[in-house]
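1st attempt posting a full record on here, be nice pls
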Amino acid sequence: MRVLVVDDTTSVRERIAAMISGLAGVEVVEQAVDGVSGLACIATRVPDVLVLDIRMPRMNGFQLLDAIKHRTSRPVSIVVSNHAEYRRHALLAGASFFYDKSTQIDDLLATLVALASRRMTAT
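the predicted structure (as tokens):
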């Protein structure tokens, strides 16, 4: 399963990518620093899953979700943010999942494992 990680904080982005890379059946195909570069990566790298932050420069996570919501083939979108107040808005904007960065990283990893497993079973 191909994953794109989009977060403007380098240390957070790299930490999440490193954790994801250790999961069976999961490959981090790219990391992007904002929604603009994330949108470009979606077009070129065609990820199955998008793990993104909300608060980013140039194009925030809500704008990125909006930009991809009408694509015929769009990645499963997982928002990871320290701002729990965005949960409802993110889900309404098209995110499939929302996790708190500081307390729910294990839930993010479990979701990715389940998605990868489901994908392997379907092929």
